Structure of Laccase:
Amino acid sequence: MVSVLTSSALFKTLLFLSLCSVWLLPDLALAKHAGITRHYKFNIKMQNVTRLCQTKSIVTVNGQFPGPRIIAREGDRLLIKVVNHVQYNVTIHWHGIRQLRSGWADGPAYVTQCPIQTGQSYVYNFTITGQRGTLFWHAHISWLRATLYGPIVILPKRHASYPFPQPFKEFPIVFGEWWKADTETIINQAMATGGAPNISDAFTINGLPGPSYNCSAKETFKLKVKPGKTYLLRLVNAALNDELFFRVANHTLTVVEADAVYVKPFKTDIVLITPGQTTNVLLKAKSNTPNAKFAMSARPYSTGPATFDNTTTIGILEYKKSASASSSNNMNISLLKAKLPQFNDSTYAMKFNQKIRSLATRKFPVKVPKKVDRRFFFTVGLGILPCSKNQACQGPNNIRPAAGINNVSFVQPNTALLQAHFFNRSKGVYTTNFPTNPPFKFNYTGTPPKNIMLDSGTKLVSLNYNTSVELVMQDTSILGAESHPLHLHGFNFFVLAQGIGNFDPKRDPAKFNLVDPAERNTVGVPSGGWVAIRFLADNPGVWFMHCHLEVHTSWGLKMAWVVNDGKGPKQKLMPPPADLPKC
């Protein structure tokens, strides 16, 4: 009897275990392809840094400038604890990360969160879904991103390869902008007086200005390569106010990715990259060691009427010498310069941007919305606003320069828009009557209208979940035509077409590329021209859209989209985390 019971129990145990293995198999298979959780800690602290013969105290992450590189794989979850040890309120934005249903981690101050106050901390918790490539992180409050920035490298899933030749090595090349003075003082004074903020004193490559600036020869980024090898350069424009041309002397670059989306590879001598954009390029080293060093140069592309920092940052590409090569020969090697376009070469800029096309393969398809639910036409540009009553205004007739979209200069609220939306407390915080079109028509790129006064307000667009949106952004000539790099949080969009002059709604849609358009998160609205984009509003939350020239953002060239929850459980915004900062 005992033996019968034992065998019966054994049979039940084996049956249970076999059923468990069947139940667990799908989970094990998923786990094999699921990402891991990566932890980072960002201590926001002041650090003395010397550039251009001057030492100043700057805001940093962990005392590093530029900040630490974040490395993850597609599918990984990131938990990044940010602890604020400085006098300023701080937020961090993970630029280009989709933040699917995790808008609380997006980072723009007073849009998705209240800032992290002195002595407080916040854990940014998000998963990287369906993205791989180069992005970056930066502060998203006031002008703190002048020194608070660093690259994000998203590797493909394990055992997945690049759709281009495997590089021998990879290097981040992060462009920045440096002021001798304190940047918070600069923008605060400008906003108080109604004047334009002072321009920067230098550009930097990985935090270093290079030999074209006074006493900066020792502060030069050097890239050492081996003959015949291919290198992947991960370019990031983290500058505040300047689009940049970039060139490596006597070398051709192959563009393979833009804004963390693979593109059809194309060769170019010069890359144009706006603030907020990232571009991956392959550089093939020469097969024999040349008797020269090569300048890696970047300087502004500037189309507006305002003054700008017309200087050039230079890094140096060096070939590794064999042990037998004498060091004395090395000292006499000449530096070959990189010739860049004229600072206002808008023709080159347009041609370069039109070369960027999505791969559009079975593995990397283009999911451009074919039908459009809602169409918008936004004018983007400058204007004027009256100075506030307590403002010692520099402008004539008590006015100051401002910027806006569809004649609305955005007013930053004093509480976070996402919380107001989630808890149905929008009254007194924002309205959803942002204009679909400009309030009046005029010759946008011709003679400006007599009245260039802007309205102001915290106005948003409300979208139902899964709405397909077509948006045409039109530059205006008010206070001068200018290229504006527009960045959309929470989404990638498809760049259908761009052109010079005024958008023609009857003729220009025939030019729309619906086959392999570039997929981006930041696009330059051409100077005196327009760009058309489409995106699918499949991410519930409140999503900021703004010019990535920080001076224009400060002046109000920004707005936000409210995407409402869908009906399904995976179509709803997650509840806020317990440690979400309070205003």
